[in-house]
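TASK: fixed-backbone design
INPUT:
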């Protein structure tokens, strides 16, 4: 009797398992987007950032006009020759306890010494290998910490801007260190 009951249970379970299967209507998918995802083209148009007014593009990602990033102090001089001349009259914004010449030296050696030389004499490795010519020595130049900051921020001639590599505070540290180098070259 037990064997008949076991056989009937097995046949019943098999029947229940196979009776719900239908090849024309597969099982229910709990997360259909995972199985049949929409293929987006890289850098293609998407409705993800469209504004409620119907404007297309990255309208909702643009910061509001007149806003300033937290912790950022805007530099008020534009990239013009007149502003460069005006920057020579300005000094550092760092207080005496904020000036860190060791940090300035470290940053100068990373970003500037390859062209300007570790002593600021205009004889860096790229100048010695004649990759760049005409890199000035700091002792021959009438520079101030304000004008150095302006040049590091915007670049001049063959020198590009370092504003993306150095924060505003780091650029002032480099400017202070360059003034120290200038005083040692005389």
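OUTPUT:
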């Amino acid at each position: 009797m037990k064997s008949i009951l076991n056989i009937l249970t097995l046949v019943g379970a098999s029947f229940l398992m196979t009776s719900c299967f239908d090849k024309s209507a597969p099982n229910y998918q709990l997360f259909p987007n995972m199985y049949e995802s929409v293929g987006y083209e890289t850098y293609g148009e998407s409705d993800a950032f469209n504004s409620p007014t119907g404007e297309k593009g990255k309208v909702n990602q643009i910061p509001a006009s007149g806003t300033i990033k937290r912790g950022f102090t805007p530099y008020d001089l534009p990239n013009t020759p007149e502003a460069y001349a005006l920057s020579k009259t300005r000094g550092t914004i760092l207080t005496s306890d904020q000036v860190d010449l060791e940090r300035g030296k470290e940053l100068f050696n990373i970003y500037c010494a390859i062209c300007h030389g570790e002593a600021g004499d205009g004889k860096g490795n790229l100048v010695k290998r004649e990759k760049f010519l005409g890199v000035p020595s700091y002792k021959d130049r009438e520079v101030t910490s304000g004008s150095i900051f302006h040049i590091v921020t915007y670049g001049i001639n063959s020198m590009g801007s370092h504003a993306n590599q150095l924060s505003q505070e780091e650029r002032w540290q480099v400017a202070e260190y360059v003034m120290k180098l200038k005083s040692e070259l005389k």
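COMMENT: The chain has a mean pLDDT of 82.
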